[in-house]
Structure formats: C-alpha cells, structure tokens
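User: What would this chain look like folded?
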Amino acid sequence: MQRKYILFALVSLAVFGISFEYGRKARAHHHTFLRNRWLASIATRGIGGAPSRVFAEVLENLEQGFVDRITDERPLTQGALRGMADALGDSRSRYLTPEEARGLIELQDGTAHGFGAVIEPVGKAPMRRLVVVSVLPGSPAEKAGLKPGEVIMKIDDKFALFPPMVRMQLRPRDADGKVTPGPGTPEPEKPEEIRDDDIMNLYESYRTLSEDGRSISLVVKGKAPNTLESFAVQTGPTAVRSVETSQPRPDVTLIRIGGFTRTIGPDLDRALARASGSKGIVLDLRGCIGGPQDRALQVLSRFADGPMGSVERRTDAGMARAKLAVNRTENAWTGKLVVLADKTTAGNAEWLAGALTASGRAKLVGARTYGDGFERSLIPFRDGSAYLLTTGKYFLPDGKAYAGAGLTPGVLANDFSRQVPTAVTVLQEARG
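Assistant: Here's the prediction, encoded as structure tokens.
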C-alpha cells in the first residue's frame, strides 16, 4: 500500500493544516534567510561543534553497540529531526518526511488523502488531544459522521496522544452516525495498566489517518459526560472543491471556498462572472482548509484593494513587520459583501476573513473563528523532507492580532442552520 500524507491547516493535520507558505517568489527571500542562518550557524561551530559532535557520537555508538544490526540510518536521523521540532514546544511546527512533504504539496493541487479531516493537537504535552477542526465535504470522515469539535481519543484501539484519566462508557455509532442506546460498555482506563505500546504518538496518528485504502477504527469523546463513541472509517482520496456557488435567494450568490488550491484564481473568476447580476455575495469560509498565503492574496484581490495587514517575522535585526497588500483585479466584485465564518475557519482562511472585515470591506457573520493567527512556512531540504515551521504572526489592517482569541463576528449566529439565513439578512440590510 502506498502511503499518502495530508495537512494540519493550520493549520496540523490529516488533512494537516495547509495554511502555509511554500517557496514562492514572494517568500523566497525569507526562506533563503532561514536556511542561510541555519547553515551559517553550523559553519560557525564547525563540524566539530558540540551539538553536531554529540549527535555523531550517539549515532556511532548506536550503530556499533545496538544488539541488532542497523542497516538504515534514516529512521534514526528522522527521529532526531522530529525531536528538534518537538523541542520547540510548538505543536504546529514539525518535521515532514519526503513522503509527508510530497503529500502536503499534493493537497495544494486539490487532492486530500486519508480520512479527510483537519485535525489539530490541542493542549500541552504530554496531555495533548487531537481535535477535529473541520471535515471535508464528501470525505470518508464526513460519511462516517465525524463532526468539527470532536476529540479523537483512540485510533485503531490505541490511545491518541494521551489516555483519559477517568473511566468512560463506550457506545458504538451506527452507519448513520447515531449512537447505540444503552448504558454502554465500561472502558478500562486505569493509567497504571496502560503501556507505551497502547499510545499512538502525534506522528503515528498523522500517518495512520493519512493512508488511503484502509479501514480505521476511531473512538471520539461523546457528548454525554465520561462517554466514548466508536465507529469505522474507510479511507481514500477526496477532491478538494476550491469554489462552489449557490443561490440562497434569487438576488444573492453564496460562494463557498473549500481551499486555496492551485486553480483558486480562475475558479473564483468564473464564480464571480456567474454572480454578476446579484445584489450581493456571501463569501462562505466555514470549513475552508486554507492554503498558501499567495493564494489567499489572490482571493483577496477579487474583493479588495490596498493594505490588508501585516505579518511579523524574526530577522537578524530583530522583529519586523512585512506589509500585506493587494491590487484589485479587473473583474473584482465591488458590491455588497458578507463573510461567513465559524470555529472551523482557521489558518489563512481565518486571516482572509479578518482582512476583509477589519478593512471595512465586508461584514462578518457566524461564530467566533478558530484563533490560529500564525504564519507557517514549508522549508524544503535536498532529500525532499521539510520543516513545517511557525515563522510569523498575523496582524489585521486595524493593527490587531487575533492569535488565540479568534475573530468575533459583528453579527453572531452560533446555530449552524441559521448562519446562511442570517448572512443573507445582513447582506440585504447593508448599504451600498
């Protein structure tokens, strides 16, 4: 079975979030700076510097002293590289193997693999939890009934990241996502009885949830206190729909952005052409998996013009803010605009929502967004592996940061079923 890997949107993920920068001209200088600083540090210390010398000594001793012959050093070096990323204490920064990096880039092209949901590790080690941020439409996860906000407790009978500290009741879900009635089966959760082999770490969780062509058993935290719910997911590829349109009213067009894929620009242009006779547009960013920053700017240029905030990054001279701005395209929509967002809006999709509303271009409707607010860069290496690294912090056009806090809509609509009707009402009442 060929393994396929996907993103965190933010963010992390299977999908592992894809709201990051990747080696484009607009960011080539910053990536060069990061890599050169890394290489300069090694050159200054020299190959005999303390960190590299200790690493070489450890590797040599493992190869010479381990009871079994080590024929492949790659798992050892990859483990060390993962450890360096983990030592940053940032759950969103991590090392990607060549296969994982390739899968992440493939997601940008519009194909997700595995169970098809964006997941995020929440909390501090060792008590992190895997939380579902959003679920891709038509994905195996959606078909199995997985919902945003649910916490994945077990994957293939192994605890995901950390076992619960209390006894819980296990209730299976049926094919329609309904929980079997009854008291449930007690789940033995005594910490002293749990071995290391019973726990699936973060990297193994991503890998398992990102494989195609397998049946995975999942256990999520139930809605009732101290309950678990179990079901199976048959994994496989999912096409990311970059743009979808609908007409909630004859004079209103709803444009849903599923992700900033490679074709987002022309796909959005076609949608705007179809909406040319509308009196207003609702831009739906709920569940959007995001994508590279330059593509978020492409979307923004179809609706706005001028300065749209900044991103703060560390340089040799200290922290510095780089301005983010767009030039409005010829076919841009200049009419009334409402942005629809909620807790599933994260990564660069969340920044897009904030830029449009903080600049005064649109009104924000829905529920409070995820609260990511950080730029992530994919820094590739010559063997095809990469680091997905937090490299900056976003600020909106009004100068405010939203990391951790999220965006609070001017018009709240926490009930999912009422969000589109509320957005349409706000649009109709808006001036312009």
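Residues 241-429 form a domain with the 2-enoyl-CoA Hydratase; Chain A, domain 1 fold (CATH 3.90.226.10). If you want, I can go into more detail on any region.
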